[in-house]
Fold these 4 entries.
Entry 1:
Amino acid sequence: MSIAVIAGLGNPGAEHIRTRHNLGFWVVDALARESGATWRSEPRFQAEVARAEIAGRSLWLLKPLVYMNESGVAVGAFLHFHKLPDSALAAVHDDITLPLGRLKLTVRGSAGGHNGVASLLAHIGPHFVRVKLGIGGKSVPEMDLKDHVLGRLTAEEETVLTARLPEFLRGLRLLVAEGPQAAMNQLNQTTFPSTDNSNNEPSNG
């Protein structure tokens, strides 16, 4: 089935703005701005939703207003209400295993330690598309992983991610237009810019 919902994963509240774990929110917000979509609160889904025209197709954008580890509750309620299968969903989220600014699409697989993805797996099933956005690993081995993902982006990290934002949005448009397999074939084989790799080295530790 074609993508009908793009959900950005993150944590609600002003204290979580511009943290690494909220990269999914940031990118979906940018997608909404680009498409001229307007967010509205939907308490029955515990989410903000927007209707958007992307790549010539009408679909939903979604931001759960529950904490990351309950993402599947909100997304599941939305999919159930609209009678959509898990395969109609693309979940945009941060990923510590990828270099800062790297984009990768996958279908199925484990949660990889990501609480939001684990919640989606528990509540909706395994067939959704994961749109993984690299945030890099801990800067020092001794750092608690929670402190890393919930920490605010550094100025250098923001510079890299802002530069990569057009590529993130292009990837989402490609996913909508051509489907998961074609998008994976193109995006996952793209050589990551060497300038981004050099900028990312301090974040990987």
Note: Strands lie at 5-8, 40-42, 47-54, 57-64, 89-95, 103-107, 129-134.
Entry 2:
Amino acid sequence: MSYKNISMDTLISLVLASLIGWILYREIVPSAVTSPTSSRRRLCDYYAAGSVFEDVSSALARGIRVLEVHLYSDEDDQPVVATTAQTQGHDVAVDNVSFESVCVAITNDAFPSSDPCVLSIVPHTEKTIVLNRAAEILQTTVRRHLIKGTNIHLAPIDSLADKLILVSGGHIVGSDLEPLINLSWTDTPLRRLTYTQALYPRDPEELKGFNLNNISLVAADPDFTPPTLHPNTPAVVYGCQWNFYVSGPGGFHAK
């Protein structure tokens, strides 16, 4: 059919119908327009799977971009990373690798990449000398991938390509590690939730609203038991961006 045979009124009707259809499509199927997997706006829009107690190189090879390390001190006051969940109450990691080897693996295997890599540091020591040594190692091994600034949750994601985002909590305050941290879960822009807290939030609507412009990291429960619901529930339902879950008896991995 030629457009010459279509009346002006018919053509206008077709245009209006198409416009109305598109508007309804956006309203009814918003995920097709604003899906987290297609958005590359800000760091808080960056959805990624996490891994802990796993060989770093193996995790990165599987596409993992959020790594969590549980940091301990060895007998020489050097920072080490636990490779298995430690017995609650112990302040020494029996099974461990050096923190330096973890950082070297990140440098070698996480980059180059158009996506940032997130390193969540959970200290299990209050020794300032150990935390200072960890900071020294970071500045030696991954220096060119570190980014200055705190509360960078609203930073454009494309500006963070090839960067290592460091997150931690209040235990590092007063150490040389503190000024290197980009996001702290003791501050508003980042929350570190357990599985149970994310699966059964006290206020689901508040959590969904928080995750629109902030970041939630869903880690393991203190006793390292697996979640009772589907592990993707926090991300899918409440918008939590960085998620860990159990995969087999060897530890906490993300598929």
Note: Residues 57 and 138 are 17 Å apart (CA to CA).
Entry 3:
Amino acid sequence: MAMPIVETVNLRKTYILGKVPVNALCGVNLKVEKGDFIAILGPSGSGKSTLLNMIGALDTPTEGKVLIDGVDISTLNDNRLAEIRHRVGFVFQFFNLIPRLTALGNVELPLSIAGLSKNEKRKRAENLLEIVGLTDRMKHKPAELSGGQRQRVAIARALANDPSFLLMDEPTGNIDSKTASDIMDLVQELNEKKGVTIVMITHDQNLAGRAKRIVRMLDGTVFKEVKQ
């Protein structure tokens, strides 16, 4: 059996607020296989975002392990951690695009570390924007794009360095329901036709229904997993 792309083992995270310990994660065990599309569903405070940050190597656990391609990331130095983060594609609720750059420039930005020539970067960025349906908006800046178009740029940017998996934090939370449905059509297509592995946080039951597996969280634990 193939090794999971991501595995969490008895993952715990405790924050100290003032002098009070707050348990954000309480022993989470989760496996993400190649080609998975997982929706993590749960109310505010259930630990969804904390789990996503752990998987993306943006935060460190209090106890337990995060394994990416079988490697315990807590054992890595800063340079190796940076390499791991570059293999993860992040898509956020509020897009996080650079306002002064065009759509093309935003997608080219993460390619600066890939050692590609200027022409190679341009060609890859154009290809990614074509995949997300923005061929005619490449030269537009974020302020000239709709919310749905901005999120498509963000998805193209997340795919720029051919990541092992995509982490999506409420990717439709800042757009209308029709546009959200269109974005989810794109996400499903990336998963089913391109084989992109996706872990998505959402509070929306309908959007979670698009995933292959739903992981329900409550009070820092996974209390139910459902394959669809």
Note: Helices lie at 48-55, 78-86, 103-108, 118-131, 147-158, 177-194, 205-208.
Entry 4:
Amino acid sequence: MLEVRDLHVYYGEIHALKGVSFEVARGEIVTLLGNNGAGKTTTLKTLSGLLAPRTGTVLLDGASILDVPAHQIVLRGITHVPEGRRIFNRLTVLENLEMGAYTRHDGAISEDMERVFSVFPRLKERRSQVAGTLSGGEQQMLAIGRALMARPRLLLLDEPSMGLAPVLVEQIFETVQTINRQGVTILLVEQNAAMALAIAQRGYVLETGAVALRGAASELAGNPEVRRAYLGEA
């Protein structure tokens, strides 16, 4: 579904991504792991059209999306839940969800709204509440729900568990699995490596802008280097 080949991205003179290559097959959950500054968020921003690479190839279903504007990438089936949620704080929950469907002109928006409410019942209870007054967990639910309103085929998730209490982290990861079972392919960036590897089929480890390790999630979870660097084991 998604093929990334030899991606090089710069911030000015800083070489942020150094030949990153990976792929995501339809129906998978694939996770990108790595420490802060490894290039995970830069990768997602490049895939969603927010950053332009200097060189490299990004194919969605065999077609290049490198020169496609960000809003057109949404139309092609990729949505991005950014790090820090980036909801519209002054709009209500309902208005945020409606903004997620801004590229659509079909008759199924109400149906998809109900689908989001079925995944996140808390949002239905707070549909008229100003988004900036929600709890951190509720804001993360809203950010994911807003992305789902665009009917994505590939969902990019950047640190969905950041800043959340452990019980909410478990809830968010269960929801990610539910969304995947409903037919959405997921590329997950997450510093909680144990949780990410527990739900993913495959993973890639980024170090200083390059892919250092790759493999099945179970293999990475058992890798001594990964266990020491990302799972907190001595």
Note: The chain has a mean pLDDT of 92.
